[in-house]
Design goal:
- This protein has 504 residues and is α+β, with helices and mostly antiparallel strands.
- It has 2 domains: 321 residues, di-copper center containing domain from catechol oxidase (Orthogonal Bundle), CATH 1.10.1280; 151 residues, Jelly Rolls (Sandwich).
- The chain is 24% helix and 16% strand.
- The chain has 11 helices and 15 strands.
- Strands 7, 8, 9, 10, 11, 12, 13, 14 and 15 form a 9-stranded antiparallel beta sheet that branches.
- β2 and β3 form a beta hairpin.
- Bound molecules: copper (II) ion (CU).
- Copper (II) ion binds next to α5.
Length: 504
C-alpha cells in the first residue's frame, strides 16, 4: 500500500507549477460543480464544519444578512439550495470540534476524508495516484512562506479558466487583500507543551463546537491564522475568520494540514495523546453525536479519535516534521532562570500534568463592551490570593515551581468572529486574542446555551516581572485594543475579566 506524503505548498514557488496545487485546484473545481445536497460537494463539506443556511445543532437561526451564505460576495458563487434532508443535515452539518480536546482528531478525520474524495477525482482526471493534500507552513523561518502561496491569489488557472482557489472574501491582517500571517504574534511555541490534556490539545469536553477549554495548538497558531487570513473589509469579515464560513475557502484545508502536521511533529517528539477512553472513543461515549464524514461514494464513514490517533494508521505522512529549536526551550526553565533560580536540567519539563484546580484571586466587577474601540478594566486582586502568589515566587526553586497566573476573559459574546485584539496587563503585552467561533458560542441554544467564549492568557511572566520590580500590587490594569481591520459589533460584551493562579 502506498503511503501518501503531504508536501509543502510553497514547492515550485507556491504557484501552479507545483502539481500538488494544480491538481488540488482541479479537484476543488469538480467538487464546486456538485450540488449542495451531494455529500461529496465542496459546499456540503464546508457545511460539515459549520454553516449559516439552516438552524442546526445549536447554531441558531441563520443571520438575515451576511454571513448567511446567500450574501457571500463571490467568487465563489455559494449555493444555499438544494438542501439535503433534515436527517442528513443533523447527521453531518455543524460538526467542527473547537475549544476542547477533540479539536485535533476531529479535524484530522475531516481532512483525511476530503483528501480521499479529491484524490478520487484527480485520478479520474488522469492525475497522480499518490496525490496528497499540501500544507501551508506559514511558520517556516527565514523564508517568505508566511505569505499565502501565490496560486491562491491568482484569478485564473494556467489555462485561463477561473481559479477555484481564488476567494473574494479573504482580506488579510490589514484588510486590504494582502494575505499573510504575521510572525510574531503567530508562533509555534505550543510545541513546548508536554501534556495533551488541558495543555496542547485542550481540556476535556463532549461533542462541542465551542467550549471553554482551548488548547495551545488551537489558540496559536490555529485561531490566530484564521483571524489574520480572514481579516475584514467594511462590515464583511473574511470567510476564514468565521467557523461557519471558513471551510468554503480552499486555503482552509492547507492551514489545517499544517496544524495536523504540527500535531504529528509533537507526537514524533515523544509526546503522547490521551489514553482515556473518553478521548479514544470520542463524544459517542457520553451519548453525544458521532463524527461522520462522507466517503467518495457518498456513504458515511464514522470515526473516533482512536482511529485517527497516528498518521500511519491513516496511511499518510508529512515530508517534514521538524520543529525549530527555540520552541523546545522550556517555558518553566525560562521563568526560573529569570527569577534567579540556579538550574541543573533545563532541557524538558516533566510529563506530569498539573492536577491542581485554578484558584480565583480576582475579578472585574461589571460586564463591559468590547466594541471596535476595545475595552479596559481594573481587576482587583484579593489580599490572600496575592500573598500566596508572592510567596510562591519567593520560594521558587528547581523542584518547587512558582504558581502560574492566568487572565481569563469570560462570557465573551457577539458576532464579530474575525476581530483580533491585543491584551496588555499593566502596560505589558500579554498576548493576542482571536474571536474565532464567537457567534456560535453566543447562540442562545445549543450545548452551552450561549455562554460565549472563554479566553485564557498566561500572564505569569508579567507577574514575575512586576514581582521582581516590586510593582505587584492589589490590582491589575487590563487594556484590550483592536488590531488591523475590525468589524463594528456594538453588541460584543465581556461578562467578566478574572485572574486565576494555578499551583504547579
Ligand atoms: Cu480551523
Amino acid at each position: 500500500m502506498t503511503t501518501f506524503t503531504r508536501k509543502n505548498a510553497w514547492n515550485q514557488g507556491g504557484t501552479f507549477d507545483n502539481p500538488d496545487l494544480l491538481w488540488y485546484a482541479k479537484g476543488v473545481k469538480e467538487m464546486m460543480s456538485r450540488p449542495l445536497n451531494d455529500p461529496t460537494s465542496w459546499w456540503f463539506y464546508a457545511a460539515i464544519h459549520g454553516q449559516y443556511i439552516v438552524d442546526n445543532d445549536g447554531s441558531g437561526p441563520p443571520p438575515t444578512g451576511y454571513p448567511n451564505w446567500a450574501f457571500i460576495p463571490g467568487p465563489p458563487a455559494v449555493p444555499t439550495t438544494p438542501l439535503p434532508s433534515p436527517s442528513i443535515i443533523s447527521q453531518y452539518w455543524n460538526q467542527c470540534q473547537h475549544a476542547g480536546w477533540f479539536f485535533p482528531p476531529w479535524h484530522r478525520g475531516y481532512l483525511y476524508a476530503l483528501e480521499n474524495i479529491l484524490r478520487g477525482i484527480i485520478v479520474s482526471h488522469g492525475g497522480p495516484s499518490d496525490w496528497a493534500l499540501p500544507y501551508w507552513n506559514y511558520l517556516k523561518k527565514q523564508t517568505n512562506q508566511y505569505q499565502m502561496p501565490p496560486a491562491f491569489a491568482s484569478q485564473t488557472l494556467p489555462d485561463n479558466t477561473p481559479n477555484p482557489l481564488f476567494v473574494n472574501a479573504r482580506y488579510g491582517p490589514n484588510g486590504n487583500g494582502n494575505i499573510y500571517v504575521p510572525i510574531p504574534p503567530v508562533n509555534q511555541n505550543c510545541q513546548q507543551a508536554t501534556a495533551y490534556t488541558n495543555e496542547y490539545g485542550g481540556g476535556v469536553t463532549g461533542f462541542d463546537h465551542f467550549d471553554s477549554s482551548t488548547g495551545r495548538l488551537e489558540n496559536n497558531p490555529h485561531n490566530y491564522v484564521h483571524g489574520f487570513v480572514g481579516g475584514a473589509s467594511g462590515q464583511i469579515g473574511g470567510l476564514m475568520g468565521d467557523p461557519g464560513l471558513a471551510a468554503l475557502d480552499p486555503i482552509f484545508y492547507l492551514h489545517h494540514s499544517n496544524i495536523d502536521r504540527l500535531w504529528a511533529a509533537w507526537n514524533a517528539a515523544s509526546n503522547s495523546n490521551p489514553t482515556d477512553t473518553a478521548w479514544l472513543n470520542g463524544p459517542t461515549a457520553s451519548g453525544d453525536r458521532k463524527f461522520y464524514m462522507p466517503k467518495p461514494d457518498g456513504t458515511a464513514w464514522q470515526y473516533t479519535p482512536e482511529m485517527v490517533n497516528t498518521t500511519s494508521q491513516l496511511n499518510y505522512t508529512y515530508d517534514d516534521i521538524s520543529i525549530s529549536a527555540p520552541a523546545l526551550v522550556s517555558k518553566n526553565a525560562m521563568r526560573l532562570r529569570k527569577l534567579g533560580v540556579p538550574l541543573q536540567n533545563i532541557s524538558k519539563e516533566s510529563q506530569m500534568e498539573s492536577k491542581a484546580t485554578p484558584e480565583l484571586i480576582g475579578a472585574s466587577t461589571a460586564s463591559m463592551n468590547l466594541g471596535a474601540a476595545g475595552a479596559n478594566a481594573v481587576v482587583k486582586l484579593d489580599a490572600s490570593g496575592l500573598q500566596k502568589v508572592k510567596s510562591s515566587l519567593l520560594k521558587a526553586a528547581e523542584n518547587e515551581k512558582p504558581d502560574e497566573v492566568y487572565l481569563q476573559l469570560e462570557g465573551v459574546k457577539g458576532t464579530a468572529d474575525a476581530n483580533m485584539y491585543t491584551v496588555s496587563v499593566n502596560h505589558q503585552y500579554a498576548g493576542h486574542i482571536s474571536l474565532f467561533g464567537l457567534r456560535v458560542a453566543s447562540a442562545k441554544k445549543g450545548h452551552h446555551a450561549g455562554a460565549g467564549l472563554t479566553i485564557r492568557l498566561d500572564i505569569s511572566s508579567i507577574v514575575d516581572e512586576l514581582h521582581l520590580n516590586d510593582e505587584l500590587k492589589d490590582s491589575l490594569e487590563v487594556i484590550i485594543q483592536p488590531v488591523g481591520s475590525t468589524l463594528i459589533d456594538d453588541q460584543c460584551t465581556i461578562e467578566r475579566i478574572s485572574v486565576y493562579k494555578v499551583k504547579k
